[in-house]
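Recap from last week: sequence in, structure out.
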Amino acid sequence: MERAWAVPGAIRLEVGEPDFPTPDHVVAAAQRALEEGHTKYTSNAGMPGLRQAVARRVSAAAGRPVDPEQVVITTGAVTAIHSTLLALLDPGDEVLVPEPAWPNAAMSAQLLGATPVPYRLSVENGFVPRIAELEALITPRTRALVVNSPANPTGAVFPASAVRELVELCRRHDLYLVSDEIYCDIVFDEPHTPAAAFDEDGRVFTIGGVSKGYAMTGWRIGWVVAPPHAADALARLQEPLTSCANAVAQIAAEAALNGPQDVVETMRREYHRRRDLAVDLMRRRGRWRYSPQGAFYVMVDVRDTGLSSRDFAIALLEEKGVAVAPGAAFGAAGEGFVRVSLANAEEAVLTGLERLCDLADRLAAGAGGRRAAGD
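Predicted structure tokens:
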């Protein structure tokens, strides 16, 4: 990102942020909240109206009742993840985290003195976890499993059968499941299945927020829906972290959840259209490996170029003026790929991908020639 800022006219495909504005009715709700003086502290767990709105949303998605008392409003979903891991982990404990993945869950575990144990997600399996490989990583120190569907950086959406197996795995080994579902509104070919749909004994913590589906990244409102026995502890943990989420932003988030949802569908359809265009382009250029099913990312395979993902990303920016995220930023399993964000205008996405393929093909031809000469 810092390098891209220094390149005039760079095509910015490295940032995981909606390119749409926050819906007008949400902004209007925030303006009213300011005018009405809603500028004070709220309870640690958040405003009752927003907690009720989240409970209704998660209950409808999971097909089982959620009490508003189970909902804790946080300063973004990242704080929801940190608070949850703070409640679950002691120093020396282990937590299974996906790879490639958004790195903040592993970072939070490290800050808490716990050990993040990565489990590999492969393009050959559509970046969906393999239960046997997960089970082999469980030790007496394992306390929790973190999953992310729809996923960043891969765009994978786990099928319902896989989600059920993950919950059952945690049940067999008495683990907690931390399910990051921040991209749940952005799915394409298959529906999103919440982990809470299969939670029979109170071990699933559902992470969500308004950042991605409502284009509200800077408003910093997330939540965790916790099992009843854990919700109060999570609420109290907000006090030493942030005390409470921003009051005006909470009112805006309530307006987002309770207001018209056509804006969410409009954004989802546009991401879907861009996904299809990107996949078609990669098929035409011979670089298709999989089709992301949700979120707004695609991982592009550049292993044949002979460069590391970081070196390729730097070369792409310097030679072609296109910024992407190196796969290694998402863990060792991301090496050999770069993440392209589809949260940009169609022309930028397609032009950026064409330039990426041009560079990758040229480098791959050179790398092939060097290998042949070496042989």
